[in-house]
Design a protein that fits this description.
This protein has two domains: 115 residues, Response regulator (Rossmann fold, 3-Layer(aba) Sandwich), CATH 3.40.50; 188 residues, Methylesterase CheB, C-terminal domain (Rossmann fold, 3-Layer(aba) Sandwich), CATH 3.40.50.180. A seven-stranded parallel β-sheet has the order 6-7-5-4-10-11-12, with helices on both faces. A three-stranded parallel β-sheet has the order 1-2-3, with helices on both faces. A two-stranded antiparallel sheet has the order 8-9. By secondary structure, it is of the alpha/beta class.
Length: 333
């Protein structure tokens, strides 16, 4: 894997491999000597657990880290923990397959290194708290609790950003539908982790669920998530149609369905992430009368998706990550 990554990164004219370490103890010395802009880190290494190494690194010499993860349930749990400890993004190791799959992996590695190079480094998250503690409402909730719907989209840095928003919301919120760009092996673990943190119940969408207030439905990593009106309620739908903006699930697919089916009683939130996925869909939501919120540049890990949305006039207001939940609740007064 070290040899493969060296070859992949070395082929890019704008990237250079400064060093390659076989274990964390060697890596610590090399980081001090070579002062790299980005570190790729495999958790499965000898002599020191990768998570322990990452925790030490973020205290001693913080720098952008892209995790190299296995496509397993255990790999997903470890990667999510690494993101809590301060890693900014991850790529999953390719399984044995075609040259096309290897090329996709190579493109993803290079794109994510470029995205986090010079990215905003945040403080690691505090340990997850299992107890459910509802955040007090900001003002009295309106009928939108039952009649409205919240749609959230995110990519690079989004696991921690979504967590920050969800943890601050009380149970008395409209139903929430969410897309986070991540593999299908990761979304069940991510949904469970979110579900353990606050008053909002979070599940990985299976398709056909009635969207209920106080519940959040995360798109599975293998399918697009959309919403559809069924009588007096909205339900989730999953489709395995072609990727949009190179992603499945795609934020644009979700936002466009919310614009069509929900319209002015919806609220859209676009969070940190590279690329432009979600910008066009958020514009459709705003044109349909929905209120839309974009994360600000200062609090984004990568100011890509929110910037693209703001540039085309799709954002009703801009807010820092720490204030998005409060701004959302003010819209529900």
């Amino acid at each position: 894997m070290r040899k493969l990554l060296t070859e992949i990164i070395g082929r890019a004219p704008d990237l250079e491999v400064l060093g390659c370490a076989q274990d964390p103890l060697v890596a610590l010395d090399m980081i001090q000597a070579l002062n790299p802009d980005v570190l790729t880190l495999d958790v499965e290494m000898p002599r020191m657990d990768g998570l322990e190494f990452l925790e030490q690194l973020m205290k001693l010499r913080p720098l952008p880290v892209v995790m190299i993860s296995s496509q397993t349930a255990r790999g997903s749990e470890t990667t999510l923990k690494a993101l809590e400890l301060g890693a900014l993004d991850y790529v999953t190791k390719p399984n044995a397959g075609s040259k096309a799959l290897l090329q996709d992996f190579a493109d993803e590695v290079r794109d994510k290194i470029r995205a986090v190079r010079g990215a905003h480094l945040r403080r690691p998250s505090p340990p997850a708290v299992a107890a459910r503690k509802a955040t007090p409402l900001v003002g009295a909730p309106s009928r939108l609790i039952n009649d409205g719907l919240i749609a959230i989209g995110a990519s690079t840095g989004g696991t921690e950003a979504i967590k920050e928003v969800i943890m601050r919301l009380p149970a008395a919120v409209p139903g929430i539908v969410m897309v986070q760009h991540m593999p299908e092996a990761f979304t069940p673990s991510f949904a469970k982790r979110l579900d353990s943190l606050g008053a909002v119940r979070v599940i990985e969408a299976q398709g056909g669920e009635r969207i209920r207030p106080g519940h959040a439905y995360l798109a599975p990593g293998h399918s697009h998530l959309t919403v559809k009106r069924s009588g007096t309620v909205w339900v989730t739908e999953l489709t395995k149609s072609e990727p949009v903006n190179r992603h499945r699930p795609a934020v644009d697919v979700l936002f466009n369905s919310v614009a069509r089916e929900v319209g002015k009683t919806a609220i859209g939130i676009i969070l940190t992430g590279m690329g432009k996925d979600g910008a066009a869909g958020m514009q459709a939501m705003r044109q349909a009368g929905a209120w839309t919120i974009g994360q600000d540049q200062e609090s984004c890990v990568v100011y890509g998706m929110p910037r693209e949305a703001a540039m085309i006039g799709a954002v009703s207001e801009v807010a820092s990550l720490g204030n998005i939940a409060e701004r959302l609740m003010l819209r529900l007064k």
